[in-house]
Amino acid sequence: IVNFTYMKSNLLPNYFKFIGATTFALAFITPIVIGFINQQAWVETESRRQIAQTIMLLGLSAFILSKEKIEDEFINACRLKAFKVAFVSGIIYFLQDAFGTYSGALINSSFYLLMMQIGVYCIIFYILKAGLTHGK
């Protein structure tokens, strides 16, 4: 018999929030600074942008997959609700884009879709965690 009342979460330690946020910030700022110093045509910077985007996603992944200082059932419930909302918002956008509603005008690559989903997750998670929804 499996006891589902206690589920151990396999999350990164809390200090990965700082590591992930720092990694994201550096990967976001570095190409901008390099672009000011070494001005190249937009086409020539494609590989540099792809590397920076990959590092940004890794940093944000570390940020959202790390534990909170106090990890309890309430935080797990907030995390689950936020993941559900982010996942559903990504599916809704994808379906609207597939039917030509947006025609790729808002999000034109998988990177931007993932960034949108991570952004939605962070917003919803911290709104729920702060209790701004009055427990609903």
Instruction: Summarize the helix and strand pattern as letters.
Output: HHHH
What's the N-to-C terminus distance?
32 Å
- Molecular shape: flat
Please give the radius of gyration in angstroms.
18 Å
| Count of β-strands | 0
Per DSSP, the total helix count is 4
> Helix proportion of residues, in percent?
55-70%
- Strand percentage lies at under 5%
What is the makeup of the main sheet? none
Question: Which consecutive residue ranges, at least 5 long each, have pLDDT under 50?
Answer: none
Based on secondary structure, the structural category is: mainly alpha
Average residue-wise pLDDT: 84
Q: In a nutshell, what does this entry contain?
A:
This protein has 136 residues and is mainly alpha-helical.
What does this structure look like?
- The mean pLDDT is 84.
- The chain is mostly helical.
- It has four helices and no strands.
- It has helices spanning 16-37, 46-64, 73-98, 110-130.
- The longest helix is centred in the middle third of the chain and has 26 residues, at 73-98.
Features:
136 residues, mainly alpha, 4 helices, 65% helix
